[in-house]
2-oxoglutarate and iron-dependent oxygenase JMJD4
Amino acid sequence: MDRATFACSTAFFRDFGNSSPGALPGGHVDFIDKADSFTYSDFFRDYLIPNHPCIFSAKFTEDWGSRKNWVTWDGKPNFEHLLQKFGEAVVPVANCDVKEYNSNPKEQLPFKEYVEYWREYIRNGYRSSRGCLYLKDWHLSRAFPEQDVYTTPVYFSSDWLNEYWDAMAVDDFRFVYMGPKGSWTPFHADVFRSYSWSANVCGRKKWLLYPAGQEEFLKDRHGNLPFDVTSPDLRDKRIYPRYSQSQPPLEILQEAGEIVFIPSGWHHQVYNLEDTISINHNWVNGCNVAVMWCFLQDELAAVQREISQWKDPIDDWHLQCQLIMKSCTGIDYKEFYNFLKVIAENRISILEKGLDEESSSQNNSKAAISTLGMLHAVFDLKRTVKVLSSLSANEDFRKLDLTSLSPSPEALLQHLESAIDTALL
């Protein structure tokens, strides 16, 4: 996107406060047809900030290598090509026919074995004694970085999660899903209550979406969310006493090539209506980092309630709560501080060194955000300051040993505020 075009949109980067996820008036989901008439600023204003879903047409993915090479002439998965490229990989596979707690059990399988199963499953009329197996959460981009699979659309390029975990070189939140007709994902909200985008390389999906907050009406009398929101059990008031107060879900039928944007904190359930391959990212940025921080506080509070009876006997009880939270969510308060620090330092680097130098960087995530302009870097810093200020004042954070954090939270905040003041001069 042209930098000047984005820089002109200063009104979009006013102080939005702590905008919270909201319901979509009228249950309508916008369809974005043409890339040349839809800018990042449009997406920022109309979908990121108000936290509304939308669908991008197949025109946005038509140049992807996966759309050209992973699909046969009649729109089916090109198993021969996939085996040639990835046959020796080992992939995570879930069994959609088995419930384990509130998800499906997973196993690791050779990719060629999974494709053999999939072909046999189709030949048998979509039945198998092994159940309905769904390849999920495959970090294909990390395992095969040289492959021409896709290019992240500019609308999703302000991606703090992958920027941070790329810098740590330990993980990422970029996934490939592959599954036969009938495979599905149970009711859930995405990691850290992040945004997500999901593009169908081939096949069709049905999405059932509930705006953030609606999930409270779907909990059973013990406070647990349903595994399947289409189950008749939800109509039993003895089990789900508040179900009648919930809104009907938004339903999206996603065609081949289309991209669905899922807002932060929206719970959803997804079905593959055909043999389907999709590419999914989870991401957080300045628009929803406050939602992530609220989620972490809620998670810690839940852990503290669960082990409250052990508070007095355990000297390092607060540290144990952090360890349990990290085992459940993948992050604790100290790593969240480091997450904010890395993002903030990258933005300061952009402001101090300028766009051209950063755009030529080998760090793709930093290069992506630098293309959005100096104004976006300032916006990110302002949002980081708000959340970092809240974290620094948080009682549970202050009870931890913070001497290992460098710089200290106070020093980092001062640095960020100074950088913002300098940039706005």
